[in-house]
Each structure stands twice: as C-alpha cells, then as structure tokens.
Design goal:
The chain is mostly helical. Helices cover 62% and strands 6% of the residues. The strands form 2 sheets. A two-stranded antiparallel ribbon has the order 1-2. Residues 38-65 form a coiled coil.
Length: 176
C-alpha cells in the first residue's frame, strides 16, 4: 500500500516538501523557507518601526520648534523679499525727491536773488515808499511759503499693492 502524499510545492524553492501556509500571503513554504519568510517579515516590521520612530521624532521636533516648519521658512522668504521691494521703492522715491528738490531750490534761489537785487537797488537809490516795502515783504513771504510748502510735489500712496499678499489656508477644521 502506498503512503499518502501530504507534500506540496514550496513557493520559494519549488520543491515538493511538507509545507506550511502563510495566512498573510496565502503561500505555502517548506520549514526552511517559512523561517526565512518570517525573518523577512520581521525585517519589514523593523523598517516600519524605524520609520514610525523617525516620524514620531519629527512630530516632537515640530512641537518643540514650530518656527522651523517649512511653511514658516516660506513666510520668512516672503517677508525678506517684500522688505527688499519696499526698500527699493523707498530708495527710488528718495532719489526722485532729491532730484526734484535740487531743481526746486535752484528755482527758489533765482527768485530770491532777483528779490535781493531789488532790495539792493531800492536801498542804494534810497527811493522807496510803503508800497515798495509791502511789495518786497510780500515777495519774501511768497518765496518763503513756496520753499516751505511746495505745491507741485507731494507723496501719494497707491491703493494697489506691489507686494503679493500671503495668508495661511488650511482645508482642515480643527476642533478643541
């Protein structure tokens, strides 16, 4: 009488042997390869544990140092570039104002020198009256006002921002 065969093919070595099923992958392994398969599974589990531990460490670091978050770095870069844009714009405006001021002061000096010549002339001729004195006084007041309160230049702040606005957007709703 022949012995009943309870041997099946091992998934790893493809030999007819007594095999044991792995319920996880539904494959049959001989004892040697079942042990090897279990070691492979243990190694995979150890990798998962290592990844878990690294992730846990990352969470703890972010809890302790929220300022090191990548999005915080992005906000910091936005802030730096925005400040640089503001500095550049302010420098352009200063240059324009200085250039204007130099021309403006030259024009005031011309008017002032003309008034000075009129005063010297009246004084040297020694012929003047109240009308002349009022005229000279008014001219001096006018030139002084023009110097102190120039009417043809001012600072205008535009309503259109030249800095891109940023905000934090989250698709999650956090509950307490």
């Amino acid at each position: 009488m022949a012995m009943a065969s309870n041997k099946t093919q091992c998934f790893t070595c493809n030999k007819e042997k007594i095999t044991y099923p792995c319920k996880g992958c539904s494959k049959e392994f001989c004892l040697t390869h079942l042990t090897e398969h279990q070691q492979n599974l243990n190694e995979e589990l150890n990798h998962i544990i290592n990844d878990y531990d690294q992730f846990k460490q990352t969470i703890n670091e972010q809890k302790q140092n929220p300022q090191d978050h990548l999005l915080i770095e992005q906000i910091n870069r936005w802030e730096t570039s925005s400040i640089e844009l503001i500095r550049q714009k302010a420098q352009e405006c200063r240059k324009s104002l200085i250039k204007y001021s130099q021309r403006f002061i030259k024009d005031i000096e011309i008017k002032f020198n003309y008034l000075s010549e009129q005063i010297k002339h009246i004084h040297s001729e020694n012929e003047f009256n109240e009308i002349d004195l009022n005229y000279l006084t008014n001219q001096l007041i006018e030139i002084t006002d023009e110097l102190n309160n120039p009417t043809d230049i001012s600072i205008k702040e535009g309503s259109q921002s030249f800095i891109n606005e940023i905000s934090v957007i989250s698709s999650n709703i956090f509950s307490n």
